[in-house]
Design brief:
By secondary structure, the chain is an alpha+beta fold. The chain has two domains: 315 residues, Beta Polymerase, domain 2, CATH 3.30.460; 43 residues, no CATH class. Helices cover 57% and strands 8% of the residues. Helix 13 crosses helix 15. The longest helix has 34 residues.
């Protein structure tokens, strides 16, 4: 059922309640466009406390929350925030707003350019998400433009962008020339830059690469595209149910704790779509092996930002031990900021945990093995600087690398044993 399912709102928590510092509490309360009277009073009460405003400014930047933070602080408690803080936020907000409007205009131009050539394109994230979910392109921080096209259109779309002055920037490993067609099997996007204003445009024919597979029938989705408005221009967008799933996959792929703004996107999309078709959304997640990613994204939006969810979705989240563990892990990283010794391996381990199907995990396992092999055996600049070898013996660096790692591990073990009582 679309709109009449009972919504849980901000009732019982979905997981273990976590204590966080007041600065994060203020950021979370401000990370929304819909603020109820109770939340408004909480914001005002927190603003009176002896907060670390430098910490708040730093985190609002790194988590892409400056626009909503500035709007809510200036509207609800400007008299309780240090003037210098409001001024800095206002400056960043104004710069972001100007850039967002320029990027939105360029996106519309690109969409019209593709449309004129008979290429159907759908904006993904960026200005379109800001307009659909936040109701204002100035209230979301975005850095580039993402457009999804069908796989059969990628070559003509690439040629069109290049003919209009955009420069294709092949990613490391992407092939050019006669072998270019091989890119479409493994990769999921082409990156372009406008040399005039340095705008980045990414053309996607998948949502993620084969290293983190997410297979969905884009041709079937194209039949369900919906109209929307962007700066008084009509565009076509993905149905909210599809966009919600895409956002949850993106957050899981790139590690939720890196940016609270991604969780804010989901909360805003839920808040602006009270008649979401949950049956379709859940079924689509099941078909694509993305149920765990969907439930995790929904749980984070509900727990941290009180996004409304149907009771049946909350029940599923509470009953899924794997999702519960992921919620705890993600919040620990968000608010405690643990540093990993091998972040690349931790990234892959998380990507394994968010997949419920074995065949979706296999490419991630394969990448983990590649990462371990590269870490252990492939020499880097430091190895070559520490041990100087003539060119004729450069192959020996493949032995130098594991020897150096073994020495570091042994030294670390000795230090630990000496400090252990």
């Amino acid at each position: 059922m679309a709109g009449n399912a009972h919504m849980a709102g901000d009732r019982q928590p979905l997981s273990k309640v976590r204590e966080i510092r007041d600065e994060f509490r203020l950021l979370l309360l401000c990370a929304r466009t819909r603020v109820n009277p109770r939340q408004r009073e909480q914001i005002r009460a927190l603003a009176l406390k002896p907060l670390d405003w430098e910490f708040i400014l730093e985190k609002s930047q790194s988590h892409a929350l400056v626009p909503v933070l500035y709007r809510n602080l200036s509207e609800f408690c400007a008299d309780r925030v240090p003037p210098a803080v409001i001024q800095r936020l206002e400056s960043v907000y104004a710069t972001n707003a100007e850039r967002n409007l320029a990027l939105t205009t360029e996106l519309i131009d690109v969409l019209r350019m593709l449309e004129a050539a008979g290429i159907s394109a759908v904006p993904y994230k960026g200005p379109a998400l800001a307009a659909i979910a936040y109701g204002d392109v100035k209230l979301r921080k975005f850095y580039d433009l993402d457009v999804v096209i069908r796989p059969q259109d990628i070559i003509p779309a690439k040629s069109l962008l290049v003919s209009h002055g955009y420069r294709w920037r092949p990613l490391h490993g992407q092939l050019t020339g006669r072998k270019e067609a091989r890119n479409f099997h493994f990769w999921h996007e082409y990156n372009f830059i406008n040399p005039g204003n340095r705008t980045n445009i990414d053309l996607h024919w998948r949502i993620s690469s084969r290293r983190f597979p997410f297979e969905i029938d884009l041709n079937a989705i194209w039949e369900r595209l919906e109209p929307a408005r962007l700066l008084d221009e009509e565009i076509r967008t993905f149905p909210s149910e599809v966009l919600l799933l895409f956002l949850c996959v993106h957050g899981s792929k790139d590690l939720w704790w890196r940016r609270i703004g991604w969780i804010c996107d989901i909360a805003e999309l839920l808040g602006s779509n009270p008649r979401l078709d949950w049956s379709y959304c859940l079924e689509l997640a099941k078909q694509t092996g993305a149920t765990r990613m969907l439930l995790l994204g929904l749980a984070l939006a509900h727990e941290l930002l009180q996004a409304p969810l149907p009771d049946r979705v909350c029940t599923r989240i509470r009953s899924d031990d794997a999702v519960q563990a992921l919620i705890e892990h993600t919040q620990q990283q968000l608010f405690d900021g643990q540093t990993f010794r091998y972040p690349s391996l931790e990234r892959q381990a998380f990507r394994v945990k968010v997949r419920e199907r074995l065949h979706d995990r296999i490419p991630v396992y394969r990448h983990m093995v590649e990462t371990v092999f590269t870490t252990v055996f492939v020499p880097n600049v430091n190895d070559r600087e520490m041990v100087k070898l003539p060119d004729s013996l450069s192959a020996l660096y493949y032995l130098v690398r594991p020897a150096r790692l073994a020495q570091r591990f042994w030294s670390h073990t000795i230090r630990r044993s000496n400090t252990t009582p």
